[in-house]
Amino acid sequence: xxxxxxxxxxxxxxxxxxxxxxxxxxxxxxxxxxxxxxxxxxxxxxxxxxxxxxxxxxxxxxxxxxxxxxxxxxxxxxxxxxxxxxxxxxxxxxxxxxxxxxxxxxxxxxxxxxxxxxxxxxxxxxxxxxxxxxxxxxxxxxxxxxxxxxxxxxxxxxxxxxxxxxxxxxxxxxxxxxxxxxxxxxxxxxxxxxxxxxxxxxxxxxxxxxxxxxxxxxxxxxxxxxxxxxxxxxxxxxxxxxxxxxxxxxxxxxxxxxxxxxxxxxxxxxxxxxxxxxxxxxxxxxxxxxxxxxxxxxxxxxxxxxxxxxxxxxxxxxxxxxxxxxxxxxxxxxxxxxxxxxxxxxxxxxxxxxxxxxxxxxxxxxxxxxxxxxxxxxxxxxxxxxxxx
Length: 389
Fold this sequence. Notes:
By secondary structure, this protein is α+β, with helices and mostly antiparallel strands. It has 11 helices and 9 strands. The model has no long low-confidence stretch (mean pLDDT 96).
């Protein structure tokens, strides 16, 4: 199925974005609370209620084809919608287009057999289950370098037996199944492993600086997990290729959501400096504050244009290996600057739980590590560019 990059035209997309923004402002943002930010069970309950309301509002699953209950948006249109959804910590989850299940659903849609899609994809679409993507491992295992993967799957008759140790697995606490990368004799292979498989154990929810992550960040042990051939997603030996296919749109989706999140921090800071007075003048009248505001809008504008350009290339079926890496590096650093300036503009208030700014600031910093550390992307880009020279 070809995506619908512009649903019934520009006016319809503007209307959809306006409805998403109203939903986020009126329903998703009022549901936010520091008390549930790191409480996995409370987040699940809250998001379940929000998703019912998103369905009723006709905003559910914008990234999925219409035949799967989604809005059928292409990437260019989705960039606008996810920016609006991303203004709220709970907005993307409410629309069921949050990580990790957004890229999990797209991976199953692309690689899954009809039986796998019925068993795993449909419950994700309906928000009856959650999933995670298990690649990262403790040292000396895989991190930004997936070639260091140490989890293994051994062939035994008509079965596969997985052994390994995963950590920092977003969404892993309470997930019903995991997409697991493991080494095999034919190369890295992607498996679907139900969480109730004997030997699959969530060790803990790793405390992280971020909040509002559905399913937390799990440490998972795989000890003799026995699965059948129907657990292989795609073809054996092509797991790294599949991981890259998943990560390119995943990192771009992060850009879309985090542009919206940092924009909210900036809007909050701008409202603050227009009211707060110090040394006989509004903060907004000070040139240093004005420079922060201008630089932040420049960062957001450039981030948005890079993201939209990459999204348009994806809609056209072009390779975005280089463009998505450049976009991820730039946007992750730009939104971090925007959030950091928002904190500085607001002083101690920007560090408190009284506004969303502190939590946004905490969320932006890890993006330079998520989906491959920026240093890795820079090195890969440079090698590729120098090879052409």
